[in-house]
Specification:
The structure is a homodimer.
Chain A: H1 4-11, E1 22-24, E2 31-33, E3 38-47, H2 59-75, E4 80-90, H3 96-112, E5 116-124, E6 129-138, E7 154-158, H4 163-172, H5 183-188, H6 196-204, H7 210-218, E8 223-226, H8 231-242, E9 244-249, H9 259-266, H10 270-276, E10 283-287, H11 289-302, E11 308-316, E12 323-327, E13 330-333
Parallel strand pairs in A: 4-5, 9-12
Antiparallel strand pairs in A: 1-2, 3-6, 4-6, 7-10, 7-11, 8-10, 9-11, 12-13
């Protein structure tokens, strides 16, 4: 066991001190940050057994993901992530190596996206959870909400769909490397699909796309959100908030490499993984038709190696069928069956 | 049981929409806030059974407290609280009335201190916890840290000491009204001390002091923090961060009304309750000697009914005995035995 204050001191090495806009870093009552423009604020909680399986995701993966999912929320506003604070829930006795690995993962992701980890709180709790709050900045009035889409606009998707869901399903089926295994180990795993490690990485260590979010905003996006619960569920939210409907072309969807092979191995439908899987943290944006292609090009340039495409167009409000998916010329209803934490009654 | 998204919708009535600096309120990927100056960011987690006893604090109390402890962190920087987001951990099946009461308490406290509740996350977890992150604003360079105190300065305390600890101890001893009882019930309780309800209210629904924090900062405070773990523990932190020592006069401490009677009823030392109790959320500030009295007067005027006093003075760095307490002319060492969540090995 380790005293709380000693633990916080040990973890301090992963936290940011002063500098680069951090006026007051960790170790005070609150952090103080210089920001340009308006403040963007979000919080996301990850709970062990609920948001991650310790047999599949290592503590370092969890730390990374806690930062990534929050950076993605800021990205979806067209804003720039600045700083984060974390409330770590940890059962007693403290598994010090795991807590440190979790902080290491947070620090890696924070460095990846230029986020200053400026402090937090460590509390004893029945199970591990990582609640991270993020501060971003955006030019006054420039934030892109979910509510600004209009009929006649194009819908753009940046980021590959289905990878996280396919990777998680492969891991659950024993067809992907275990928690903590790196890519080299994974490649030598006899039972894994060749693409398994890459797909599983999308689940364990998702990539947030703040540069794409900024590019889409700069190129005229009028509505945007990130795909955390599934394309169908999240796009329905954008449609409801904006009072529009969406019609997607299945062939245009940027389905991640390896999802088709994973779907065959798992005996499931690849399109279903892409549309309902969630946790891909792709960005969906609505843009005027004449600006969509330039926005796609700018977003692809901003995020090397990430697919970007016009995937459909927006029509007038349709409360019955907000999202339609055209598969082989046939229109289907794309439902809202994204992942919910509480089962409907 | 209720679906997560339906739950979030129900809770939306306690959350702020646009207006008064809220550019984007709840219901989007992140909230957007107009702030003046630099951003102040903090997070505090409250866990059931650890930070509150459901037999002593009602869900409404817990919601209030989650906001108050975070507002206190912002106040201790001399900053103004602006907005908050919450991650609520809730076991399944969701106790809807209790979750709503918790949000009601958060909304009450948020309204009390002008904080916009702009969203959050609701997750299923093994036990209830309320993790709240707060955003504040402060003029560039004006934040007051723990590290700016200097020898020769006076130490000021705003807020009554010992009330929260006394109230909690009375409740545990069955000498205070149960959770959910209001003051009228409490007054009629035959077994309660007359002061019990007031003392217990300090534990259940603490008062943050942002107006006092701003007044102390405006009157030249060079270091400040709030008393969350106990006067001895927190003042030691200020001394260590600033490289000073402190000498307090016991007679000068603003011990809360009723603490002496509670201590007698409990068979404990009133001074001990005041010095080690914690959770009073009083503010401690270091000021130049010639400005201390004016700062005390300004803080008292800013927070009606809250005691404020010069309680001691600061000397040169003393790593062995950072804090001394003079009781009846005799110097004692005031230790750091504030409340720690993890027991030292």
């Amino acid at each position: 066991m380790i005293a709380e204050f000693a633990l916080i001191e040990r973890l301090g090495r992963w936290l940011a001190g002063r500098g680069d806009g951090v006026e007051v870093g960790h170790g005070d009552d609150a952090a103080v940050l210089a920001i340009d423009g308006q403040a963007v604020l979000a919080v996301d909680a990850l709970v062990e057994g609920r948001h991650w399986d310790p047999a599949i995701s290592s503590p370092r993966d969890v730390g990374w993901k806690a930062v990534a999912v929050n950076v993605s929320d800021v990205a979806a506003m067209g804003a720039k992530p600045v700083a984060a604070v974390v409330a770590l829930h940890e059962p007693a006795p403290v598994a010090l190596a795991e807590v440190e690995a979790c902080y290491e993962g947070m620090a890696e992701a924070a460095a990846r996206w230029g986020v200053a980890l400026v402090g937090g709180d460590t509390v004893e709790a029945p199970c591990r959870a990582v609640d991270l709050a993020i501060l971003g900045e955006v030019a006054p009035g420039a934030a892109v909400t979910r509510g600004g889409a209009a009929p006649g606009q194009r819908l753009v998707c940046v980021g590959a769909l289905g990878a996280a869901a396919a990777g998680l399903a492969l891991a659950r089926a024993g067809l992907a490397p275990p928690a903590g295994a790196d890519r080299a180990d994974a490649a030598s795993g006899g039972t894994s699909l060749p693409q398994a490690a890459g797909l599983l990485a999308a689940h364990r260590r998702p990539r947030a796309l703040p540069a794409a979010g900024a590019a889409l905003a700069a190129h005229g996006a009028t509505a945007m959100l990130d795909v955390s619960d599934g394309l169908g569920a999240d796009l329905t939210r954008l449609c409801v908030a904006s009072g529009v409907s969406a019609r997607l072309e299945a062939e245009a969807l940027p389905i991640a490499e390896g999802v088709a092979a994973a779907a065959r191995a798992l005996g499931v439908d690849a399109l279903d993984l892409a549309c309902r899987g969630g946790e891909d943290f792709a960005l969906l944006a609505a843009l005027p038709a004449e600006r969509a292609e330039a926005a796609v090009a700018a977003a692809a340039e901003a995020e090397a190696g990430v697919p970007a495409a016009v995937i459909g167009w927006l029509g007038s409000h349709d409360p019955e069928t907000p999202v339609r998916l055209v598969v082989d010329g046939v229109e289907r209803r794309l439902g809202t069956s994204g992942y919910e934490h509480f089962t409907p009654s």
